[in-house]
């Protein structure tokens, strides 16, 4: 070995093994939620155990339990996220738009390529597990269908105040639920016979528009 080679080796510090990148609590929680949500959509509710999620995100179960008190709490947060991705909230930038347009916005489900037919499978899994996880079932209802109903009821209530609808303000919640059923159909029917009742986005849009027209024709002042 030459003197110059020895000199170069002496000047080159030994390469240190890098430490894994540290994530803050918010980033870690986001990773767990996004991974768990995708796992639920692709593999189903039963496969989304805390151990499986922990392996997927390269964390310990103990770390996950510092973010979520229980598997039920973690799954509830995941379903809340799924509900936010599928159901829409009010469009605050178009509050002056015609009532038909505002209702059409709320009653259009977001098409989620990563979820595909998952909502139907998830609904089946939730109904099956409801006796075991009653709090989970309630949280899913509140973050999904009930949240959408509340948005629609608020639109109807404000339309009543403006004189656009002739409804008793106390009836806006039940009217919103009825309009949802008219537009979106019965989930139990879809579970029992998905081939017949799982329509395309185009057919769902036709049903939605027809339902809104029929509803408003019967609710507008005479």
UniProtKB/TrEMBL annotation:
<feature type="region of interest" description="Disordered">
    <location>
        <begin position="1"/>
        <end position="25"/>
    </location>
</feature>
<dbReference type="InterPro" id="IPR001647">
    <property type="entry name" value="HTH_TetR"/>
</dbReference>
<dbReference type="InterPro" id="IPR036271">
    <property type="entry name" value="Tet_transcr_reg_TetR-rel_C_sf"/>
</dbReference>
<dbReference type="Pfam" id="PF00440">
    <property type="entry name" value="TetR_N"/>
</dbReference>
<feature type="DNA-binding region" description="H-T-H motif">
    <location>
        <begin position="49"/>
        <end position="68"/>
    </location>
</feature>
<dbReference type="InterPro" id="IPR050109">
    <property type="entry name" value="HTH-type_TetR-like_transc_reg"/>
</dbReference>
<keyword id="KW-0238">DNA-binding</keyword>
<protein>
    <submittedName>
        <fullName>Transcriptional regulator, TetR family</fullName>
    </submittedName>
</protein>
<feature type="compositionally biased region" description="Polar residues">
    <location>
        <begin position="1"/>
        <end position="10"/>
    </location>
</feature>
<dbReference type="GO" id="GO:0000976">
    <property type="term" value="F:transcription cis-regulatory region binding"/>
</dbReference>
<dbReference type="Pfam" id="PF14246">
    <property type="entry name" value="TetR_C_7"/>
</dbReference>
<dbReference type="InterPro" id="IPR009057">
    <property type="entry name" value="Homeodomain-like_sf"/>
</dbReference>
<dbReference type="GO" id="GO:0003700">
    <property type="term" value="F:DNA-binding transcription factor activity"/>
</dbReference>
<dbReference type="InterPro" id="IPR039536">
    <property type="entry name" value="TetR_C_Proteobacteria"/>
</dbReference>
<feature type="domain" description="HTH tetR-type">
    <location>
        <begin position="26"/>
        <end position="86"/>
    </location>
</feature>
């Amino acid at each position: 070995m030459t003197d110059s080679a020895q000199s170069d080796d002496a000047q080159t510090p030994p390469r240190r093994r890098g430490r894994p990148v540290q994530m803050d609590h918010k980033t870690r929680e986001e990773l767990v939620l996004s991974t768990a949500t995708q796992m639920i959509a692709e593999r189903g509710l039963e496969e989304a155990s805390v151990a499986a999620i922990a392996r997927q995100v390269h964390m310990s179960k103990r770390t996950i339990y510092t973010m979520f008190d229980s598997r039920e709490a973690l799954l509830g947060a995941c379903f809340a996220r799924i509900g936010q991705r599928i159901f829409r909230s009010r469009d605050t930038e178009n509050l002056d738009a015609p009532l038909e347009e505002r209702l059409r916005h709320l009653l259009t489900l977001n098409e989620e390529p990563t979820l595909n037919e998952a909502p139907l499978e998830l609904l089946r899994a939730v109904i099956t597990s409801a006796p075991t996880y009653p709090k989970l079932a309630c949280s899913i209802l509140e973050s999904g269908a009930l949240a959408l109903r509340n948005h629609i009821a608020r639109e109807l209530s404000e339309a009543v105040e403006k004189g656009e609808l002739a409804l008793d303000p106390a009836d806006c919640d039940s009217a919103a639920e009825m309009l949802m059923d008219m537009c979106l159909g019965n989930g139990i029917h879809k579970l029992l016979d998905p081939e017949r009742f799982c329509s395309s986005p185009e057919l769902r849009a036709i049903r939605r528009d027809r339902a809104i027209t029929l509803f408003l024709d019967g609710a507008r002042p005479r």
